Task: inverse folding
């Protein structure tokens, strides 16, 4: 993961006792009320651990926040597959939806326990799905588990651009700039103009949607019939649009098949990144520019020399706090953190780092 959400990073850079709580909230066959009961058990454990670090007043402030959350039905009805909760000083609360289940856990220490969040984010991160047809589009934002339609992008459908024309007819269109800004005009065209008309409309969409996506900083997955997606890829070039698409229109999926398709796309991307990362790490180890020794990695962190930190997902409890500290140090110096699945055989140690020189 190359960057943290600014609010999470800010909280992690602060001092004082912080609670990190993770809970799975699966949708299938589950009851939001049951999730709230499990949360009650987790906050009971949190109270026990917080009582060793906080005075009575500070502890009560923390618990008031958690109990209010437990009884908030809106919160429990709006969960994704899991969530991470971070609470510091009873006032600063961050909740981060996760698209993959996690082990329920409570961690109380001086820094955030981010490793489960980083691991889940590598599976499916927040993204957009751009569902295109020949003359219109729909945009959705989600995390693999839940999606909502997005309408604040400002781009128009074909009909909205050319309201005096039949979108099912062949049309030719262009634009001109006048005192009032850009205006659009159109007229009926011969059948051989149909493809050019579609390309022009897609160029209009690209010119208006791409800056929106770049500002949001989230990847975009394309959906639609193959012919339309081919035309889009031929007329648009920006890394914000993922090369692999969904292969069919958004509404041809049910919730489970959509999640599986999106997960497959992100897993393919992650596998390619992991392969490149393992090759880079191996070269660094051979050249003396990387290490798998914890003491050497800590020393590199003190010198702000970590380029990429690799942590295997089966880290041990006794290693957790050291690894959490290294994660914070790494992000502070502008480095990246990669959680490595145990199935990656090239990573035979639970931690490694590639250094910058």
Result:
């Amino acid at each position: 993961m190359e960057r943290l959400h600014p609010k999470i990073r800010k909280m992690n850079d602060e001092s004082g006792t912080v609670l990190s709580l993770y809970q799975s909230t699966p949708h299938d066959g589950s009851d939001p009320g049951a999730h709230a009961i499990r949360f009650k058990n987790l906050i009971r454990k949190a109270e026990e651990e917080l009582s060793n670090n906080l005075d009575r007043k500070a502890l009560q402030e923390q618990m008031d926040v958690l109990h209010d959350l437990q009884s908030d039905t809106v919160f429990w009805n709006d969960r994704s597959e899991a969530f991470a909760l971070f609470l510091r000083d009873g006032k600063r609360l961050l909740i981060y939806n996760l698209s993959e289940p996690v082990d329920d856990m409570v961690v109380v220490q001086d820094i955030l326990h981010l490793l489960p969040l980083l691991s889940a984010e590598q599976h499916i991160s927040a993204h957009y799905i751009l569902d295109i047809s020949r003359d219109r589009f729909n945009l959705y934002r989600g995390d693999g588990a839940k999606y909502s339609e997005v309408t604040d992008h400002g781009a128009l459908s074909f009909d909205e651009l050319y309201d005096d024309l039949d979108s099912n007819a062949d049309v030719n269109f262009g634009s001109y700039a006048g005192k009032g800004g850009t205006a659009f005009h159109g007229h009926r065209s011969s059948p051989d103009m149909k493809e050019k008309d579609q390309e022009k409309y897609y160029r209009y969409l690209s010119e208006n949607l791409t800056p929106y996506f770049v500002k949001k900083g989230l990847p975009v997955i394309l959906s639609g019939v193959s012919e339309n997606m081919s035309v889009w890829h031929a007329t648009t070039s920006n890394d914000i649009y993922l090369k692999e698409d969904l292969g069919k229109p958004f509404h041809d999926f049910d919730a489970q098949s959509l999640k599986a398709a999106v997960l497959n796309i992100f897993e393919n991307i992650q596998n390619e990144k992991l392969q490149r990362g393992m090759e880079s790490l191996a070269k660094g180890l051979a050249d003396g520019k990387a290490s798998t020794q914890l003491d050497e990695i800590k020393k590199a962190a003190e010198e702000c020399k970590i380029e990429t930190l690799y942590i295997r997902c089966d880290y041990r409890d006794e290693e957790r706090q050291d690894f959490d500290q290294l994660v914070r140090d790494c992000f502070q110096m502008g480095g990246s953190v990669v959680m490595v699945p145990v199935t990656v055989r090239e990573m035979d140690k639970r931690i490694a780092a590639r250094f910058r020189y």
In short: The chain has eleven helices and 14 strands. The two ends are 21 Å apart (CA to CA). Residues 255-287 form the longest helix (33 residues). Confidence is low (pLDDT under 50) at residues 169-185, 187-193.
